[in-house]
Design goal:
heterodimer; A: 429 residues; alpha/beta; Urease, subunit C, domain 1; TIM Barrel; 9-stranded mixed beta sheet; 19 strands; globular; B: 312 residues; Rossmann fold; 2 domains; 5-stranded parallel beta sheet; 4-stranded parallel beta sheet; 9 strands
């Protein structure tokens, strides 16, 4: 196997920052130090001048549309987008067709990810069969197939009895249940945040309380059962406040937020562009500030993209007919650097080792940059300016909310299991 | 101006000029042969994704009086269920050569989206709960003539009563009435108001009876049966008791006050009295004025411009 040497970067991991080169062979880091070179003539030398070298990023929340909607995003293009975004592992959401509720679908998704070979695809499992909210999915069978994160994402589990039983049953399996917090009875027909904008635009509103009621319920269920739980894509100020209080109590809760929820407000819908329709919806500036504060103080553990590709024609319809969701993988780092007033260390923590722990892959992703560790690494230039051009994205879909936006921070190289899958901001396959 | 999507796109001056242009169109409509060649050769396509015979007929009549060619497309099912995007539908019809689309859609914002996919003018004939600008203009014209207010609505007190939350008429009329200087009060139970009224130039009341004597115009909105299923109202009967225009309530209106309704009326719900016996009712004038206002809008967008000297 060929050797790779990353030269001249600033190494940043959970142990801190230092300068140094990193040499990689056979999937592992074989040397870390100043001016590696003598006796280590890497077949591939990757220039990291001006760059940060960090453990690979882990995205807890990605929609790959295979199986079922390959016209929007096969696992291969989604994996390429992930690699270009600096992610070495992504958790694939279960709302495919068929859904992730049998071992065979899990194996298929994992195998397609391996075939693409651009990032590790970690299939999530359903909490309920076909995400229908009525019958528990076979947790143990799916866990045996390697699933760690279970969710009905796209749907919240509405029935409190079923959610309680899910947590109780999950307890001894060592898995984590991740909730899409939305009380469906409060969001019938909703297309955007309920507030001044939807009132003026004449659109049915998705009220903050629909998320907050389920956050509140599930915090109580975690208190009751003692089983850990992860909250997906928190979007409201009150949700952040409740999670902060629950964590202070010592409850075993983690949470994520998506870049669009800390960068864009509901005013984006003023032109009725379905690209900005997303679930949960873009909220107010006060909510954006609360999400940022939650990330800054660690209440929100992870930045997760909720990357949700949709074929162009499905977004060229009125807002109420358009599916919710927007792209995120290739812009997450840049939006975080550009918009978050946080030390780079904390941003990388929220993109790498903290989500790696939640995803149950802390044995191989988000590892310290040390000799003997698996070589899953991201090299990015935190100062590089670039403009988002939808047609240049690797995703098969084009529904980025950042089209034309000038951003700072770009991934230069991504190393997956010792192989450079992105070199100089281009995928190698 | 190329499109008419929302009253918010018009200045008070624009509204005044459109209403003056409407005077000309009323005059034309009164001629023995109510037809002028102003829009000869122009192709006006009615694209109704939601059925509305009266609005479509009104636009059709307006276009024909100005000698435009007209086509009708009724698209009953949603574009998605046909497997065709809205963009596909628009681009296909636009390829036949269209100068203006008159668009009615059950989804808010659809007319605005359509402007991105064609060079034709778009006239919003009602979109979801959002806007119905020609309704607002014909209502302004009806008040202007009914109360002899050619110079504006300063000091006029107008109450809009009913299901404001789901009403495109309310959203456009609030903007138009306020732009012309009227004092607008929205009267409804809280469940039938929008979730937020931030930035709306209105007052709110839940007590119609207290308001009646001081009104110059009472504008009733249709209240639909399905609102009960959404827990917005206990019953239409209870709505009617609190907000329906009964003969007793009508008797407490000032003698000059106008009674208006965009139609179709829900008799026995918001309109309990017989409108034919209410001296202030101008509901049929609204319909008549609708044709002239739509002629004015078509001429404004497709004719030689808004210059009155070039009016037909």
């Amino acid at each position: 196997m060929s050797r790779v040497v990353i030269r001249g970067g600033m190494l940043l991991d959970q142990t801190g920052e230092r300068t140094g080169d990193v040499a990689i062979e056979s999937g592992r880091i074989i040397a870390v130090g100043e001016k590696l070179g003598d006796g280590l003539h890497g077949d591939t030398a990757l220039d990291a001048t001006g760059c940060v070298v960090s453990p690979g990023f882990v995205d807890l929340h990605v929609h790959l549309r295979e199986p079922g909607k390959e016209e929007a995003e096969p696992i291969e293009t989604g994996s390429r987008a992930a690699a270009l975004g600096g992610f070495t592992a992504v958790v694939a959401m279960p709302n495919t067709d068929p859904a992730h509720d049998t071992g065979s679908v899990i194996e298929f998704v994992r195998a397609q990810g391996r075939k693409a070979g651009l990032c590790e695809v970690l299939p999530s499992g359903c909490i309920t069969v076909d995400r229908a909210g009525t019958q528990l999915a076979p947790f143990a069978e799916l866990a045996a197939a390697g699933v760690h994160v279970f969710t009905d994402d796209g749907n919240g589990v509405q029935d409190p009895q079923l959610m309680r039983r899910a947590l109780e049953y999950a307890g001894p399996l060592g898995i984590v249940l991740a909730q899409h917090c939305e009380v469906a009875a409060l969001t019938k027909g909703a297309v955007m945040h309920e507030g001044a904008c939807c009132s003026r635009l004449g659109l049915p509103g998705w009220p903050a309380i629909a998320e907050e009621l389920m956050v509140m319920r599930d915090i109580e269920l975690v208190r009751l059962t003692g089983v850990p739980m992860h909250f997906l894509h928190l979007s409201t100020a009150r949700s952040v406040e409740m999670v902060r209080a629950a964590k202070a109590e010592g409850l075993n809760i983690t949470a994520e937020a998506a870049p669009h929820h800390f960068t864009l407000s509901d005013e984006q819908l003023n032109g009725y562009d379905p690209v900005f329709k997303v679930n949960p919806p873009l909220r107010t500036r006060a909510d954006i500030d609360a999400i940022k504060a939650g990330l800054a103080d660690g209440t929100i553990d992870a930045i997760a993209t909720d990357h949700a590709p949709h074929a162009p024609h499905t977004k060229e319809v009125p807002l109420d007919e358009a599916p919710p969701g927007m792209l995120g993988l290739e812009t997450a780092l840049a939006l975080s650097i550009s918009e978050l007033d946080m030390p780079l260390f904390d941003i990388v923590a929220a993109l790498s080792w903290k989500p790696a722990a939640i995803a149950g892959v802390a044995d191989r992703h988000g590892r310290p940059i040390e000799v003997g560790e698996p070589a899953n690494l991201t090299v990015f230039d935190p100062t590089q300016k670039w403009t988002v051009v939808p047609a240049q994205l690797a995703s098969k879909s084009r529904n980025t909310p950042s089209a034309g936006r000038a951003l700072t921070g770009k991934v230069r190289h991504t190393i997956l299991n010792g192989v450079a899958v992105v070199v100089n901001s281009a995928a190698t396959k | 101006m190329k499109h008419l999507l929302s009253i918010a796109d018009l200045s008070a001056d624009d509204i005044h000029r459109l209403l003056e242009l409407t005077d000309h169109m009323v005059e034309i409509s009164g001629r023995p042969i109510p037809k002028v060649p102003a829009l000869r050769g122009k192709n006006v396509v009615s694209l109704f994704f939601e059925d509305s015979t009266r609005t479509r007929t009104s636009f059709d009549t307006a276009a024909k009086r100005l000698s435009a060619d007209t086509m009708n497309f009724a698209v009953s099912s949603s574009s998605v269920s046909k497997g065709e995007s809205l963009r596909d539908t628009i681009e296909t019809i636009a390829a036949m050569g269209v100068d203006a689309f008159v668009v009615r859609h059950r989804s808010s914002g659809a007319p605005e989206m359509i402007t991105r996919w064609t060079n034709a003018s778009i006239i919003n004939a009602g979109d979801g709960w959002h806007q119905h600008p020609t309704q607002a203009l014909l209502d302004c014209y009806t008040i202007r003539t009914g109360l002899n207010r050619r110079d504006g609505f300063d000091g006029l007190r107008i109450a809009i009563v009913g299901d404001i939350r789901h009403s495109r008429v309310a959203r456009s009329n609030v903007q138009a009435f306020a732009a012309l200087g009227a004092h607008v009060t929205l009267v409804a139970p809280p469940t039938l108001l929008p979730p937020s009224l931030e930035g709306w130039p209105v007052e709110i009341s839940h007590d119609l009876d207290a308001l009646l004597p001081e009104l110059d115009v009472i504008y009733l909105l249709r209240v639909q049966r399905e609102r009960m299923e959404e827990a917005l109202l206990p019953s239409l009967h209870e709505y009617s008791l609190l907000y329906g225009l009964t003969e007793a309530r009508a008797a407490r209106l000032a003698p000059h006050a106008l009674v208006m309704h965009p139609g179709p009326m829900n008799r026995g719900v918001e309109m309990v009295a017989d409108p034919g016996e209410l001296p202030g009712s101008v509901i049929l004038n609204q319909v008549t004025n609708g044709v002239a206002v739509r002629m004015a809008v078509l001429f404004w967008l497709l004719g030689s411009g808004a210059d009155l000297s070039e009016a037909p």
